[in-house]
Write a structure and sequence with these properties.
single chain; five-stranded mixed beta sheet
Length: 308
């Protein structure tokens, strides 16, 4: 995709369908559309039938188009945290790529025996040993092919060109690079909070080096989880005092929670604006999502910024 083509980034959660669309407004590349629609009923990708999910996506997309038409034909998506399977393991780059993928597929079959491993699409990122992780490791992400087929059919039905599908936290991290708060030097902490899961990334000079996803029921569990991850007994090489930047985003993260985390953990979490370096298109000044809910669109923004 040409860097300057229009591109619509869609973020799908259990309850909301969001779009952040980048494109030309006159001869300037801008944020031209920012909107969301709630599903008539919450979506559970693992238990709901394909027909139900497709109907919910189509209804929400139609609702968005009634507010403002999505003009871009290039579309990319982020899916809920719990649609992805993930783990991080020691890694030695001695196998061919295809053999390494099959090795990870076997490990996934052990970790998630209820999911047929041959029905998973696998991606991995090599992480060289560093001050945080003392061995070469690989971050492994896997997504059931069924979800990709669902999005392919959705795009075909709406004359969209499917470009990318991404993890919501990885997409949100990409949006950090487009915000005024971005500082990639040193050790950073990034957390993404969905309605039922917490994703935690440690980044070194802007590159992810450690990731875990944790389920939770109450907000108090988030504090305990982060505290445990900062405990030397859990991760011997993590020192809270070395964290130079901390970012937070997710599904409508309340300011009260951010203040609570700052006070309890003594970490200055930044509720960053993913659109701070993108020129707003016509009507954005009156757009409530642009003015008040910008942080909740971090994943939609991040996937719309992706060009490869």
């Amino acid at each position: 995709m040409n860097r300057f083509e229009n591109h619509a980034g869609f973020n799908i959660t259990r309850s909301v369908f969001q779009v952040a669309e980048m494109g030309f407004d006159g001869d300037v590349y801008k944020l031209v559309n920012l909107n969301e629609a709630k599903f008539n009923q919450p979506i559970n990708f693992s238990t709901n039938k394909d027909a139900f999910i497709s109907a919910q996506l189509q209804s929400a997309y139609d609702s968005i188009n009634l507010k403002k038409i999505v003009s871009s034909r290039n579309a990319s998506f982020t899916l809920p945290l719990d649609t992805f399977l993930s783990f991080q393991v020691p890694f030695e780059n001695s196998l061919l790529h295809t053999d390494q993928v099959e090795e990870f597929r076997w490990e996934l079959s052990v970790l998630y025996p209820h999911i047929p491993a041959d029905e998973l699409v696998i991606q991995y990122f090599e992480v060289e040993k560093n001050m945080l992780v003392t061995k070469n490791t690989a971050m492994v992400l896997a997504l059931p092919r069924r979800y990709i087929s669902l999005l392919n059919k959705f795009c075909q039905n709406n004359s969209l060109n499917l470009r990318f599908i991404d993890h919501p936290h990885i997409a949100a991290h990409r949006a950090v690079h487009f915000s005024n708060d971005n500082d990639t030097n040193g050790l950073s902490l990034s957390i993404y909070i969905s309605k039922k899961n917490l994703s935690l990334f440690f980044l070194l000079d802007g590159n992810p080096v450690y990731n875990r996803v944790f389920p939770y029921q109450e907000f108090s569990e988030i504090v305990k989880t982060i505290t445990d991850q900062l405990n030397p007994a859990t991760n011997k090489n993590i020192n809270k005092d070395l964290i130079s930047n901390a970012y937070i985003c997710g599904e409508d993260v309340p300011d009260e929670l951010i203040s609570y985390l700052k006070n309890i953990l003594k970490i200055n979490f930044k509720k960053f604006n993913p659109f701070s370096k993108i020129k707003p298109g016509a009507g954005m000044a009156e757009n409530i999502f642009y003015r008040q809910k910008f942080n909740s669109f971090a994943s939609a923004a991040g996937i719309s910024y992706r060009i490869s």
